[in-house]
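Hey, I was hoping to borrow your eyes for a little while. A protein chain has come my way and I'm curious about its shape. Take your time with it, there's no hurry, and the full record follows here:
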Amino acid sequence: MSVKASVLNPGSVSGELLVLDEPLSFWGGYDPLTGTIIDQQHPQVGIKVTGKVLVMPGTRGSSGTPGVLGESLRLGTGPIGLILGKPDVNVMAAALVVSELYDIPVPVLVLEKAGYARLHSGQAVRLESNGGVLLQH
């Protein structure tokens, strides 16, 4: 099964989906050193995003997101790609800076609600530079 997404930052990766139930605040809700969600109010508190294709409706919080997410991506503790429910300039900025400064491509895609609803944690997926989201069984 495949769906088409809008591309905020290009790149191709394959991995496992981690779908968050709620938006995440990277500033104060995420530990960039361990890749762990630390917001005690978040439904997935304690989950590591390292090496996953992170799917979330959006982010919460401040303009500190690019710094925290960018550091996590640079350290290799962050997600390998992101699929968002709506465009997010802070996530895009983090991925763009890491791609340019450290040559670490991190695709960031935006998926319409119907396609977004088809994604589930644990699914194998391939993100394509053209916005293709290929779900594998």
In short: Residues 89-102 form the longest helix (14 residues). Helices lie at 26-29, 65-75, 89-102, 113-116.
